[in-house]
Design a protein that fits this description.
133 residues, mainly beta, 2 domains, five-stranded antiparallel β-sheet, three-stranded antiparallel β-sheet, 7% helix, binds zinc ion
């Protein structure tokens, strides 16, 4: 499907992730970027939206260390998950790899790295991307 005509849904978000792109739904009316993308602007309810590629680096807003994980992640415990702000109002949840949880600091810069493993269609879908320093 033509990129620009993809519906503004989480499914489309993960299609873009497969292509190693982070895309949010930018509102042409108020300029707010919705992540996860929704068919209607979360700020002004406009449906006049366009896809906007988001930076692959952001700052850590909050994090927690998971000790008891859902079954499919149990081998990974303990592991940190965090929320990274890519730009104003565009925040992405995900697993943080490549750093000792004790070294994590709110506000630190993290990069988004892309993996290959397919998982479910639920939000968030941890294993197709993760954060790393
Ligand atoms: Zn809007």
């Amino acid at each position: 499907m033509d990129e620009a005509s993809r519906p503004f849904t989480i499914e489309s978000f993960y299609c873009f992730v497969k292509e190693k792109k982070l895309m949010g739904a930018k509102c042409n009316n108020c300029g707010r970027t919705s992540l996860p993308p929704r068919p209607m602007c979360t700020n002004c309810r406009s449906m006049d939206l366009m896809w906007q590629e988001l930076p692959k680096q952001g700052s850590l807003v909050t994090y927690t260390v998971i000790h008891v994980a859902p079954h499919r992640f149990s081998e990974l415990t303990p592991y940190p998950v965090g929320i990274v702000e890519l730009k104003e109002n565009a925040r992405l949840p995900g697993v943080i790899k490549g750093i000792d949880p004790e070294q994590l600091k709110i506000g630190m810069k993290l990069n988004i790295a892309f993996g290959q493993e397919p998982t479910t269609t639920e939000w968030p879908q941890w294993s197709r991307y993760h954060f790393e320093p």
